[in-house]
């Protein structure tokens, strides 16, 4: 018996290649970048790549909760545009009386609107009992139509008086680290804690793995999934807060096709599209992989940058095949 215990103690820990896959893929892509372009590893380019990936990474953290709980949200790109438009309109209205403080109020409004948009999606899915794909396909059209109507088909620019005080949120840094990257790290750490260290995280994956068993175990699957959609909405709002100073405006095309990037990042990060398994850090690696590939397409001129969406589509198909055949 002692020998058996000793043998078990000496048995090497198994390496889960499926979990390590996103990080290995990221390393391979970075290596390819080094070989294809000498400027790839320049501090400026690396900072640009990491900063640009922040928006998708933040939203993808929320999507990890939705997908792991057995849901899917196709509305995140349109929601991003809608929340951005609401924030800018709020800040512009308050700027004459509040000055730069309007930015804080606008950010708060954005968080509330994002949470409400997520709640709407969640209630349509859980209370309305509509498939997440159909429900969020509908709200995707609603949010996109609303931002088009709000902007009258043009753009909603932020007031000039707010541009300089808001600029550091995207272009500033903390101890040399771009501020959007710092915000992303905070969101990822909070998401990892919630998913891996709390009862809600365990219930989230239980609801995605087998909802019937979860219900018999006393888990309110509807509440868990609705909360996941709310988390998604909050993450969209946080991304919007970081995004606004980059371009200084909201347009009907803001966030277009981001739902593809977000779902791709989550899936290649190791989260099962059918639910029940989630990898927060893998999701971050997935977002970085997508941005590095897009960056290489621009730097190398090997493939037209207009084919970025096509490449992302191929990646998500390959990732789904990998999930199907690699255990």
Automatic annotation (TrEMBL):
<dbReference type="InterPro" id="IPR001851">
    <property type="entry name" value="ABC_transp_permease"/>
</dbReference>
<dbReference type="GO" id="GO:0022857">
    <property type="term" value="F:transmembrane transporter activity"/>
</dbReference>
<dbReference type="Pfam" id="PF02653">
    <property type="entry name" value="BPD_transp_2"/>
</dbReference>
<protein>
    <submittedName>
        <fullName>ABC transporter permease</fullName>
    </submittedName>
</protein>
<feature type="transmembrane region" description="Helical">
    <location>
        <begin position="229"/>
        <end position="249"/>
    </location>
</feature>
<feature type="transmembrane region" description="Helical">
    <location>
        <begin position="20"/>
        <end position="37"/>
    </location>
</feature>
<feature type="transmembrane region" description="Helical">
    <location>
        <begin position="306"/>
        <end position="326"/>
    </location>
</feature>
<keyword id="KW-0472">Membrane</keyword>
<feature type="transmembrane region" description="Helical">
    <location>
        <begin position="49"/>
        <end position="67"/>
    </location>
</feature>
<keyword id="KW-1133">Transmembrane helix</keyword>
<feature type="transmembrane region" description="Helical">
    <location>
        <begin position="170"/>
        <end position="196"/>
    </location>
</feature>
<keyword id="KW-0812">Transmembrane</keyword>
<keyword id="KW-1003">Cell membrane</keyword>
<feature type="transmembrane region" description="Helical">
    <location>
        <begin position="132"/>
        <end position="150"/>
    </location>
</feature>
<feature type="transmembrane region" description="Helical">
    <location>
        <begin position="103"/>
        <end position="125"/>
    </location>
</feature>
<feature type="transmembrane region" description="Helical">
    <location>
        <begin position="280"/>
        <end position="300"/>
    </location>
</feature>
<dbReference type="GO" id="GO:0005886">
    <property type="term" value="C:plasma membrane"/>
</dbReference>
């Amino acid at each position: 018996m002692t020998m058996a215990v000793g043998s078990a103690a000496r048995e090497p820990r198994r390496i889960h290649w499926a979990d390590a896959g996103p990080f290995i893929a990221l390393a391979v892509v970075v290596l390819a970048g080094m070989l294809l372009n000498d400027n790839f590893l320049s501090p400026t380019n690396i900072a640009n790549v990491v900063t640009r990936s922040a928006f998708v990474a933040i939203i993808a953290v929320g999507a990890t909760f939705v997908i792991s709980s057995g849901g899917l949200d196709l509305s995140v790109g349109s929601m991003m545009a809608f929340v951005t438009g609401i924030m800018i309109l709020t800040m512009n209205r308050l700027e004459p009386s509040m000055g730069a403080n309007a930015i804080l109020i606008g950010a708060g409004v954005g968080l509330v609107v994002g949470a409400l948009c997520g709640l709407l999606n969640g209630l349509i899915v859980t209370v309305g009992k509509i498939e997440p794909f159909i429900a969020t396909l509908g709200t995707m059209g609603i949010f996109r139509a609303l931002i088009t109507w709000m902007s009258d088909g043009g753009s909603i620019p932020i007031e000039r008086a707010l541009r300089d005080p808001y600029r550091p949120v995207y272009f500033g840094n903390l101890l040399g680290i771009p501020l959007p990257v710092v915000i992303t790290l905070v969101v990822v750490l909070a998401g990892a804690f919630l998913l891996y260290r709390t009862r809600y995280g365990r219930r989230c994956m239980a609801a995605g793995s087998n909802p019937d068993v979860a219900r018999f175990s006393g888990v309110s699957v509807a509440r868990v999934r609705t909360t996941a959609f709310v988390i998604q909405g909050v993450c969209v709002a946080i991304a919007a807060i970081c995004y606004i100073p980059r371009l200084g405006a909201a347009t009907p095309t803001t966030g277009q096709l981001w739902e593809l990037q977000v779902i791709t990042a989550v899936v290649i990060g190791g989260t099962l599209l059918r639910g029940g398994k989630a990898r927060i850090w893998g999701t971050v690696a997935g977002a970085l992989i997508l941005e590095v590939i897009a960056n290489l397409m621009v730097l190398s001129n090997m493939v037209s940058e207009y084919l970025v969406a096509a490449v992302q589509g191929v990646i998500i198909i390959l990732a789904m095949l990998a999930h199907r055949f690699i255990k």
